[in-house]
Amino acid sequence: MKYKTFAAFVGPSIFLMLLFIAAPLISVFFQSFYITQPVFETVEVETCTPGFPTQTCVTEQKTQPIIGEDGKVVTTVKYVGLESYRNVLEPDRAWAALSAFDFRALLTIDFWKALRFTLTFTLVTLPLVIGAGLLIAVVVNNASRLIRGPIIFVSLLPFIITPVIGALSIRWLFIGDGIMTAFLEWAFSQNISMFAQGWTIELLMMFYRVWHVAPFAFVVFYAGLQTVNQDTLESAIIDGASRWERLRYVIIPHLMPLIVFISLIHLMDSYRVFEEIVGFSSQAHRISLQWLTYDFLTPDDSGNRSISRASASAMLTMIGIVVLLVPLLRKTWRDHKGGRV
Amino acid sequence: MAEIQLKNVSKRWGSFVGVDNFDMTIADREFLVLLGPSGCGKTTTMRMIAGLEEATDGDIVIGGRVVNDLDPKDRDIAMVFQSYGLYPNMNVYENIRFPLKVRKVDPATHDERVMRAADMVELREFLHRKPAELSGGQRQRVALARAIVREPNVFLMDEPLSNLDAKLRVSTRAQIKNLQHELKVTTIYVTHDQIEAMTLADRVVVMKRGVIQQVGTPTEIYDRPANTFVAGFIGSPAMNLMEGTLSGGTFSGDHVSISGLSGPDGPVTLGFRAEDAAVAETGPQAEITAPVYTMELLGDATMITVKAGGALVSVKASKDYRIEIDEPVGLNIPAEICHLFNQKTGARIDV
Predict the structure, then answer these.
(1) Cβ contacts (< 8 Å) between B90 and chain A: which residues?
(2) Which of 282-321 (B) contact A at CB < 8 A?
(3) Model confidence over B234-288: pLDDT tens digits?
(4) How close A170 comes to chain B (CA, Å)?
(5) Which of the listed residues A117, A229, B93, B255 has the most CB atoms within 10 Å of its CB?
(6) CB-CB under 8 Å, B146 with A249
């Protein structure tokens, strides 16, 4: 293709990516090193109340924001280096807790609490999503043509449902005496409250995520299964491979690039877990890194947003994703180079 | 040691008949070739023997054991596929070892057996390559090694040479023939290439639309085709088949008159092979006299084609024979090289 044609096709999307992805990223990166604060002044205020025989006057020092000409609070922007990161990570407390092997103490710090949950959530759901997706794909592929369509339709439903709605409906199934809780109580004849403690909520959140994402993995794997070389599969049958061995030695190696693809997507998505926190209202028990950023951005009682801490938290989240992706990307790169020998 | 018996084996999909009443016994150590055009049921027959396809009717017996309800892996067979069927993620060594591995053969013997199989097909130097780094011929040799490593009782080969280029085909063909001789294993080989069938087979089965047309040694099939289908399928070029009538021992048709034949009077199909006939002077002593339709140089011979008896008829002449198109030519067709077939059923008329 001519360079000009190529540029005409790719140009607009590169421009939009720069505008909407790269520019905010760089902006966030810089904002995490600065803090914006209102400028305060200390004034002496004399407050007098009527009294007898004279008024009672109290003179006190009061700190108040300076109001500018336009009637708005005057602010300054100050370079603080890694101060915001320190505020988020709280390294001293974290280190003290770590050296005392006191994980409970470590988890009282918001960031570490969020990181613990986010990592557990990501790493537990990943194999479940891939396993469930593969299982459905293999089952559908072996199902007779007649019921294949309905099965595909039903298994795709969770994927179509809006994330928050899906999370909410699961919450309603289990909260209070929702029908699932009622059923469980009936089945185990004991009192169950799924939303009274953190770990049950965490389980429900993971369950919801797997339920929601597995159909996507299924569709991709199902497409991949259509391209498995039938001769190779039949060779394996004749060579004496059982169903499981065929899956392990023929089908999974064939699907490996797709498994890596799903893993990449899932790692990126679930590390940014957010809808579940909102949908399950789990803030009191479980928070994620993305939710932490959101929490920093929410104005406090005096209307201030902690933009710098939010930026620092966002940058840390991004670094986390990159660290998680590196092994997979390295594997893909090696296979790519290996294939060219 | 395995004799294979197919007892009235049929395969039907709904009303479509894939293989109809296939009934024959394949002797131990025999090299049997199933030959026919695509869709004739030869591959289906082999897949039923392998267990990849279930027989609708009939019994398949391998080594005295009815195998109809056995899984492919319990039938003690090995199979080679047209597109190799190798495991792309494993290297050559692991590919050859795979049957041993999944069948839980004593791991101590693996290395020796893989090496022996690799040596037989001359693959020792490629053991660490992946299939993608091999040529087509080498890949098919890996498939062969994988088939022989387990020393099964039966080899099944499904057009193993069809994906190779002409030159490789010849050398791999020789290798297969030699391997079968060495290993003395009953082999069933499916092909649509009659030259492969002729060169490899102890016996050939010619099939058409699921029905056996003729079973015999390559010589029998070449010399005494059972019907016009076999006659037209075997040989290169295929047998010339002319339409005409026989009366009083003389066959006459368009541009052709051959006497000295014996057979019932009436309409018949007469066949002869291009290499048996010769070019002659035009005139009454030539059985066919017609203008030349085309002349082709084959290198070792010159092929002259004329229109006679309602068909194109080819004759091989010596390699330095030259003639122009439309020039009249006489062809010498002695009665003893002629085969007569029933014009309606196509069946051979034996005298």
Answers:
(1) 249
(2) none
(3) 888 888 888 888 888 888 888 888 888 888 888 888 888 888 888 877 777 778 8
(4) 42
(5) A117
(6) no
Given a cut of 70, whether residue B64 has pLDDT beyond it is: yes
The domain defined by A103-338 folds into MetI-like fold (1.10.3720)
Whether A234 sits inside 8 A of B85 (CB atoms) is: yes
The lowest-confidence range among A288-302, B44-58, B245-259 is: B245-259
Contact of B99 with chain A, judged by CB distance below 8 Å, is answered with yes
pLDDT tens-digit readout, A108-137: 888 999 999 999 999 999 999 999 999 999
Angstroms from A329 CA to nearest CA on chain B: 19
Residue B1 binned pLDDT confidence (cut-offs 50, 70, 90):
low
Domain extents in chain A: 103-338
Radius of gyration of chain B (CA): 24
Average pLDDT of A299-315? 85
Q: In the CATH scheme, what architecture does the domain B4-228 have?
A: 3-Layer(aba) Sandwich (3.40)
Mean pLDDT of A239-257: 90
pLDDT above 90 for A22: yes
**Least CB–CB distance from A235: residue in B51, B81, B89:** B81
Return the domain boundaries, chain B.
4-228, 238-342
